[in-house]
Amino acid sequence: MTNRLSNHSTRTTSNRSYLHRAPAAHRPSIHAEQTVYYWWYEFLKRNEDYRRCCERGGKGQLAKLYADFGNVHTLSFSHWWQEEKRGERLFAEPVSPIELRELKDATEWDTEWTSDSVMVVAVPLGEPKRRIKRWFHRLLNDRHTGAPGRPVKRASGSLYPVYGKFSVMSLQQMLLVYDFVKDNPTMTQSNVGKQLNLIKKAMPKVGDSIPLLAKKRNRMSATVSRYLRRANAMITNVGKGKFPCADD
User: Which of 201, 191, 192, 200 is nearest to 174 (CA)?
Assistant: First the structure.
């Protein structure tokens, strides 16, 4: 599956924005599998504690998480995401209370505004409009460090913020390895990598020397082991409301 989307890009559905690509019914080019939120849902399905909580109708130690995420085992991702606007409710950023407007007098000043969140300027209306625009453009470039079309990088204020950096393709491969090993528990890790064609350069070829074959097997084993370790950690942590998080 090809990941055609960048990881860090704000997208808006309805009146809420996301710090990462999100599924959008009105933009079919954004496939669910290309979003971190799809993999959040899939990893949560592998958490055994959460599965048991779902089987008990949301009761148990993960009841609070269930109240937010619901039964991921009975709904497709699309239905799960859209049901009661769950995706927006869990992952969208809160609507900013600050809007662009003119302050009529000093009483409209909000003492909670800080220089890193609001820029206040005095505009000399007696100057030519073109000159004012030029001044403002320079001032805005100095104060707003975001790339054109993107907001300044900021901490997430969503109910469940995405944890750290990630690669959608890596998340997909981790879960692919995890599921394959679960279905084939006796297979060696090097053969798992071979069966999944995990690393093309480490696939054995006719004519490979014995030392080279051993080197390729070791590389496959190490990669499978790393993916398994990270997948298991993420499956554990997603039950704590953190994803994608491989921290102990």
Answer: 192
Residue with tokens 């390729």: 216
In the chain, beta strands by DSSP E: 11-13, 16-18
The count of other CB atoms within 10 Å of the CB of residue 191 is 15
Look at residues 176, 158, 164, 168 and name the one whose alpha carbon lies nearest to residue 37.
168
Question: Which residues are paired to 49 by β-bridges?
Answer: none
- Model pLDDT for residues 138-175, shown as the tens digit of each residue: 777 777 665 554 444 567 788 999 998 899 999 999 99
Three-state secondary-structure class, residue 144: coil
User: Considering Cα of 34, then 35, then 38, then 39, what sign does the dihedral take?
Assistant: positive
**Structure token digits, residue 110:** 């909000």
User: Tens digit of pLDDT for each residue in 25-57?
Assistant: 645 556 899 999 999 999 999 999 999 999 999
β-bridge mates for residue 12, sequence order: 17
Residues paired with residue 16 on neighbouring β-strands, in sequence order? 13
